Amino acid sequence: MSDTTSELVCVGAIGGAYGVHGDVRLKSFTAETFAIQDYAPLLTEDGAFEFDIDITRAIKNGLAARLSGIVTKEQADALKGVKLFVPRSRLPETDEDEYYYTDLVGLEVRDTGGTVLGTVKNVLNHGAADLLEVLPPNTSETVFLPFTMAAVPTVDIAAGRIVADPPEGVFDA
User: What gap in Å lies between CA 144 and CA 122, rounded to an integer?
Assistant: First the structure.
């Protein structure tokens, strides 16, 4: 496979076994949950494994699916926590005001007055809302910025920056 890691986009994660016949619990990160199977084959981050996918049903907090080559509960459990990727070229092009979360990583974050707040390290979602994990300058401690229109009014991928109006106390010195 010629795709480099930077050209891969995470589209899902395996939550472990679902049942005893090798099915997995799958969390889809695609805009339409079931669309994840449209991008198969799915790859592990290192490209070592490639899976075709067959979604068997929607379940609480995700999907139940069969992955090619996975036939036992033990094999499915061994994949718990594995993220699944596709080459960016398989994904639809984004509109001017749209982007993939992977596009945000590495962008500079400034406040509305132009002061540098840091760089986006990661985009997280733990259920309630998306968060930007921002690494402020001259520190190793990250800060979590709510990824809402109020806290992040401007995302400018072309300019490589995000303008933030963080809630009080988020970036205390």
Answer: 10
